[in-house]
Amino acid sequence: MTIGEGKRIAVLSPVAWRTPPRAYGAWETVASNITEGLVRRGWDVTLFATTESITKAKLSSVVPCGYAEDDSQDPKVSECMHISELFERADEFDLIHNNFDFLPLTYSRLISTPMLTTIHGFSSEAIMPVFHKYSDSYYASISDSDRAEGLNYVGTVYNGIDLSDFVFSETPGEALVAFGRIHPDKGFHLAIDVAKRSGRKLIIAGIVQDQRYFDEDIMPHVDGKNIKFIGPVGPPERDDLLKQAYAVLHLNTIPERFGLVMAESMAAGVPVIAMDLGSCREVIADGETGFLVDDVAGAVEAVGKIDTISRASCRRRVEEKFSLDVMAANYEKVYQEIFRREALKKVMSGV
Amino acid sequence: MTIGEGKRIAVLSPVAWRTPPRAYGAWETVASNITEGLVRRGWDVTLFATTESITKAKLSSVVPCGYAEDDSQDPKVSECMHISELFERADEFDLIHNNFDFLPLTYSRLISTPMLTTIHGFSSEAIMPVFHKYSDSYYASISDSDRAEGLNYVGTVYNGIDLSDFVFSETPGEALVAFGRIHPDKGFHLAIDVAKRSGRKLIIAGIVQDQRYFDEDIMPHVDGKNIKFIGPVGPPERDDLLKQAYAVLHLNTIPERFGLVMAESMAAGVPVIAMDLGSCREVIADGETGFLVDDVAGAVEAVGKIDTISRASCRRRVEEKFSLDVMAANYEKVYQEIFRREALKKVMSGV
Q1: For chain A, which residues lie within 8 Å of any Cβ of chain B, measuring from their own Cβ?
Q2: Nearest to B142 by CA among B162, B161, B159
Q3: Is B146 exposed, middle or buried (0-12, 13-18, 19+ CB in 10 A)?
Q4: Crossing angle of helices A311-321/A260-267, nearest 10°?
Q5: What are the average pLDDT values for consecutive 10-residue runs of chain B, which has 351 residues?
Q6: Alpha-carbon distance A130 to B77, whole Å?
């Protein structure tokens, strides 16, 4: 008998993109990873996502394809039709796992099935009142540091990555590497500074999210030799990129919520030098799989002692803490806790 | 015993503007008129609207002021918090009267209170699937002509206007008048043509909704003498405007949904010349309170016979068909029909 025996889970993914997305689509990626991880562990899962989505779970869909990929859709219509479809079928499930942000919360008191919402991010202060109003439902955070005060968190579940997507390399490369969304929050300008002061080459990769930042603060330093920019990288190019990495610089300027880039780097055996802001100290083991620093000087110093880091430890940390199966197993624990609390509620209310 | 005795109605207004709005806000205006009309007739009404709204009904609100008047709000957050507040209290009401467009429909199957949705307009083809999916709820149209095929309409209820806002004038003015949103759909360019061909002055009033249309097709003809543009008009200026009117030109180029402008004109005693498209033939009595025409030539001809129209008939038509009390009385009939059908459903299901 598997742990999920008899319990039916509905996973609600966004419908901006396919689940999993063809390229960009962070929340759809995580929703897919959760779904497939749970299926592998024997749970009865129904994924609510776009019709063209790919899953080993049952698929339920009313939106043919992602509205971000289809101009003919009104996103608001697609979102509310998608969400309501699940809520109208709520009594077919023992738990709804919402990966869709705040809108589903406003339907949640109209049904009796409990709902877990993984808060993948707070897009603005203006959405906080929704999370506060529905704090009697269940929340999961994606790192201990990424918690808003006053919300009812059942637990933290770190994002998992598919380790088979990453080739471990025992031998370090020569260059420093910085990758992810090109945005000031991610501190690519600091990485350039660190590279110059360390006398190492730097390779930058990622989609440009802030064009002005890219044009003014990044491109003037790119010479194609010491500082290279190679654009966005999909999984195969990312492997090539990480093979060239001596270390990855993750010099975020604001608190990190989780930091997939750090897990991906370590999966390939690459140590990470990260700012000690937000979740970085949860993802990296300081001194074991990389270094936490407070500024550029600290990062330069860290580059100097990277060869004290065991690349095998980096990979092992991801296997132990950030794999798909670990994520699914951790959600399993959260689900069991919710079932326990719901059962208690029923006892207390004399049902 | 009043007709509404014992029945509790929740009226859901939008939260873009105050209810009633300070200036623009067509749906909030109608929601306010419905609410106040029902209260006057003795119904127990709770208005769900912004906190600063003004009503003789009970007011329930979670959104302090209209998001269109407050940049700090995320409209999506305000909308879903506003809607869900009503649905979470659904069992306090015998009927929900939705004047909020399509989003509330997606909550409606999660509650047992019946919901009537007045369809004030279809903003785009993309929203039609929502109305079709929830066609097992109840719809009201604002004219017989403004009905989408395949939807379950309980009835048509024309919009009502507050007759005390309009001074009746027995004596016609000299000018032709065209007022409303300045948009090609409203045919202000045709009104200019008709005025020129009739040798009458034209006064145009309204908010500019299509700037390019205004700049290219209207302003080049405005000379301040024969063709005047006076900008938006509130209630007092509107009275002055209608006093100067020989006739109002409503030369809509697409089917009209209802056409408040026509009712307002007739309330002041002004005959209306309107294109025979959509609801115009329901609002105007052809040959009695104005003329229905098919083109500019027909409109010019109609101007020539305006003095055959009794201005008192114009006012009387509004009193009989488009007053606030008539609207409330007609909604009352729709509500009774819904209560009848709901009772029948209960009998049929053996409850």
Answers
A1: 72-74, 76-77, 80-81, 83-84, 87-88, 90, 102-103, 106-107, 109-111, 124, 126-127, 129-130, 133
A2: B159
A3: buried
A4: 120
A5: 74 96 87 95 97 98 95 95 98 98 97 97 90 95 94 95 93 96 96 98 95 97 97 88 97 95 97 98 98 98 97 98 96 96 90 63
A6: 7
DSSP character at residue B206? S
Report CB contact under 8 Å: A130, B73: no
DSSP A154: E
Between the CA of residue A328 and those of A30, A54, A106, A222, what are the distances in Å? 11, 18, 26, 41
Grade residue A152 by pLDDT with cuts at 50, 70 and 90: confident
Residue A343 to residues A4, A116, A136, B32, Cα–Cα distance (Å)? 16, 15, 15, 45
HSE at residue A145, side-chain half, CA atoms within 13 A, is 14
Candidates B107, B111, B131: best to mutate against A (most CBs of A within 10 A) is B107
Q: Which of B252, B248, B261, B247 is nearest to B187 (CA)?
A: B252
Other beta carbons less than 10 A from residue A346's beta carbon: 10
Contact at 8 Å (CB) between B170 and B311?
yes
Better-scored residue on pLDDT, A166 or A3: A166
| Among A76, A90, A110, beta carbon nearest to B107 | A110
Picking from A106, A109, A136 by the largest number of B CB atoms within 10 A of its own CB, the best residue to mutate is A106
pLDDT one-digit tens code per residue, A36-54: 999 999 999 999 999 999 9
pTM: 0.89
> What is the complex's ipTM, to 2 decimals?
0.88
Identify all chain A residues contacting B77, using CB atoms and an 8 Å cutoff: 102, 126-127, 129-130
Q: Are B127 and A77 an interchain contact pair (Cβ–Cβ within 8 Å)? A: yes
Query: CB within 8 A of A73, min separation 6: which ones?
Result: A63, A67, B126
Q: How far apart are CA B81 and CA A105, in angstroms?
A: 10
As a whole number of angstroms, the distance between CA B163 and CA B91 comes to 35
